[in-house]
Write a structure and sequence with these properties.
single chain, 228 residues, alpha+beta, 5-stranded antiparallel beta sheet, 7 helices
Length: 228
Amino acid sequence: MNTSNWTYYYKLSTDGTPCESNLLYVPLVNPQQDVMCMHYAVNTEYQQYIDTVPQDVVDYFFEKELRLITRAQNLQCTPKVLDVDQANRKIFIEWNKETLSQIVNDKTRSLDTELPDWKDCIFNVLKELKDNEYWKVALYPHCFFLNKEGVLKTIDYYAVIPYEERYLERAVIEKIIGPGGAYRFDEATTDGIIDFKKFYDITMTRHLGNFWKDNPFPKFYERLHNEL
């Protein structure tokens, strides 16, 4: 696909201002706003802090994104992969205008009004991932969108951890660890090895309160891991 006339997607931050959605890929959206291209590349025009992420780290996460989003195509919560340009590190997925960050962080909009069952929808995503033995450790509003059929999807599969990949040498991803979330890595790391089960537990129970209204994730965690 030719993306020359596509535009950048920006999430809304918690203060309501547009900003880059991540430091690993550049999200480009077609004019019809129904396809997103995740372009894993260094781009100083889009990403403000790109000098902290070397190309080899970007390449590592592109390979992980492609592997996990392809592996999880059978899940309802996974966006459909429409095309892949592996040589240029581009993955094209179904899209629909915006993520939930545009609703959550806009004072004139409300999830309770636009998606009254949003908590059930997110819980169902988490349960589907759990049932298929995945942890997802990026669970911010900009990691979810409603597709054209009104089904909640989650993006950023570079942050999906299969149970069998629970442990990772921290040095592999050290250069993308920012100060805001460093405590999760610190608490989950022993002898240079990250335990992503611990990381997921911290994320679900303590990390998301500043990003979601009436943070439901601790209750989700209890339901998923104590009741089921």
